[in-house]
Write a structure and sequence with these properties.
about 575 residues; 6-stranded mixed β-sheet; about 45% helix; globular
Length: about 575
């Protein structure tokens, strides 16, 4: 069956509107220019994967090919913003069949009925959905129209971290006898992401209940019996932020309005924020030293309309508390609206997320989107210069660069995590595509851990995952706690990174040779989900591989031998 001449011609027009030569496009698609010419003239049929790749390169949606209106390249502006974060074509997740099956089920369409609608046999549809038969371009367009899905839906990766979260959940000894392997986990996430998310919620709930029971037994017996992993309550916050891509446009708009009222010389000042609270909301800010053995960071007395801020806080922390208080007074309805759209497992997790959004809005007041974005581009995301420019802390700036997700003015998609010296991850978020473990610690080769060996120094590295993807990662330790002499502070490490393709926009790559494979640090997500059997730092055997102990043979670790 020939490819539609009308569609082929539209592909040609879109290509020319982008100023893309046929030879160049053919090279990007890894096909010959003559084959591309046959496609554009409607003389050659193509399979669905190649059609998706062509649409990806031309920054158009499948619906643009069936649109009867005049071709207007500006119609693809939304598509461009969606595709700007997609990896190169060779790494696109093009498992079309399982995704078609998932979208069909979401609409409640039975296979027989859907096959009839698109004029194919149910058995042929079953082969397509199971990935055993390629789909041709014309049929793909017909299916996308019936299911009301488009290119960005079919080429998007599975939910970031979802596959890894399921793998970590199945690491529990409860599932040892089921022998669930990696490909089976991947199939579940690709075909039934909602069920995968439901399992994660069940796992979180189970671990929380288990932890509560163990705590009660320990309190009654006076003995410590819990040596099992428990879930961190803040994981719900990470899920909430991840679902919203850590971008809340209505809070950004509110923050911009406040910034316009309090700015001094294009910057915010602590005194100006305090004056605004007093003038706008009749709230008086008082700085004082906490009483002995009664430490606090902030206390808001609603009855007296008084905000008490500890003098043990740094000025940067005081600024954030004051800005967050403005958000609490003026943007609470906006925050409640965002929270109402997410199903929280408990009231506690909802309140924690409310605090996160108050701090988000506070940071947006200190570092307003457009101004901050411009400075990030100009300074190539030099975090230390940015913290000096906006008079904020390193951690606040690291948080803020992950929020630049406005489709009209996007920043680099970063991942962010914060860990302590014991390896506990207290904050995590990923738009870069790197997977961060939900339960337990991450790979010890990540520089977010080696940063503890050189406190206060920013360390940059090129990290290579087991699937071949490369990331530029930086890490730096920060101190948290009271600021008086003799009081100990906790030391945390902040990790930030992006895909290697953004290297030229990231100042920390200037002394790194991205193309030199010798400088790459091979890392995984966690030992239980990592394929690397040549790692001397392996702490556990991989979950998805058979493991047999051989007392006569040992590789680089006790979990690796000839039988593995």
């Amino acid at each position: 069956m020939k490819f539609s001449k009308e569609i082929g011609e539209k592909l040609r027009v879109f290509r020319k509107r982008l100023g893309l030569q046929a030879k160049k496009l053919a090279e990007q698609l890894d096909i010959s220019p003559s084959y591309l010419n046959l496609i554009e003239s409607g003389k050659r049929a193509i399979d669905g994967e190649l059609l998706l790749k062509i649409c990806q390169e031309l920054r158009i949606e499948l619906s643009d090919l069936k649109n009867e209106n005049d071709i207007d390249i500006s119609n693809s502006k939304l598509a461009i913003s969606k595709f700007s974060k997609v990896k190169n074509l060779n790494k696109l997740d093009l498992k079309i069949g399982p995704k078609i099956k998932a979208f069909r089920r979401q609409l409640g369409l039975q296979a027989n009925k859907f096959a009839e609608q698109i004029n194919i046999s149910p058995s042929y549809l079953n082969l397509i959905e199971s990935g055993k038969r390629k789909i041709d371009g014309n049929l793909l367009i017909k299916i996308s129209k019936e299911l009301r899905v488009d290119l960005s839906d079919l080429t998007s990766k599975s939910d970031i971290n979802l596959e890894n979260d399921i793998s970590n959940l199945l690491d529990d000894q409860l599932f040892d006898d089921l022998d669930i392997l990696g490909p089976e986990v991947k199939d579940l996430v690709n075909t039934n992401p909602k069920i995968a998310k439901a399992l994660i919620k069940l796992g979180d709930n189970f671990k929380q209940k288990d932890h509560e029971i163990v705590n009660q037994v320990e309190n009654l017996s006076g003995k410590i019996i819990d040596n099992r992993k428990t879930s961190f309550p803040g994981e719900v916050i990470s899920d909430f932020l991840q679902e919203n891509k850590n971008y809340f446009p209505k809070l950004e708009n509110f923050a911009n309005e406040i910034f316009e009222k309090v700015q001094k010389n294009n910057r915010t000042r602590y005194v100006a924020l305090c004056d605004f609270l007093k003038k706008e909301y009749s709230i008086k800010v008082r700085d004082l030293i906490p009483e002995e053995k009664k430490p606090f960071s902030k206390v808001f007395n609603k009855k007296n309309k008084e905000l008490l801020l500890s003098d043990y806080n740094s000025l940067e922390t005081k600024k954030l508390h004051a800005a967050a208080q403005i958000a609490q007074e003026g943007a609470n309805d906006i925050i409640e609206n965002y929270l109402s759209k997410f199903k929280f497992p408990s009231e506690e997790s909802k309140r924690l997320s409310q605090v996160a959004l108050l701090n988000y809005c506070g940071a947006a007041i200190l570092m307003p989107y457009k101004l901050f974005h411009n400075e990030c581009k100009r300074l190539k995301y030099d975090l230390q210069l940015l913290q000096n420019t906006f008079a904020t802390s390193f951690e606040q700036v690291a948080h803020r660069v992950t929020c630049l997700q406005d489709p009209e003015l996007p920043g680099i998609p970063f991942h962010f995590l914060r860990v302590d010296m014991a390896g506990n991850i207290s904050k995590r978020f990923s738009l870069s595509g790197i997977e961060i473990p939900r339960y337990g610690g991450a790979c010890p080769r990540w520089n977010v851990y080696s940063a503890f060996t050189r406190p206060g120094v920013i360390q940059a590295a090129v990290s290579k995952m087991t699937n071949g993807e490369k990331y530029v990662c930086i890490a730096k330790t920060v101190e948290k706690g009271v600021g008086r002499y003799g009081q100990s502070k906790s030391i945390l490490s902040i990790g930030l990174g992006c895909e290697a393709k953004y290297a030229k926009e990231f100042v920390y790559t200037e002394n790194l040779d991205i193309s030199d494979k010798k400088t790459e640090i091979p890392i995984g997500v966690s030992c239980r989900t990592c394929d690397r059997l040549d790692c001397s730092q392996r702490a556990f055997p991989p979950l998805h591989k058979k493991f047999d102990v051989d007392i006569n043979t040992r590789g680089v670790s006790v979990y690796v031998n000839d039988n593995n």
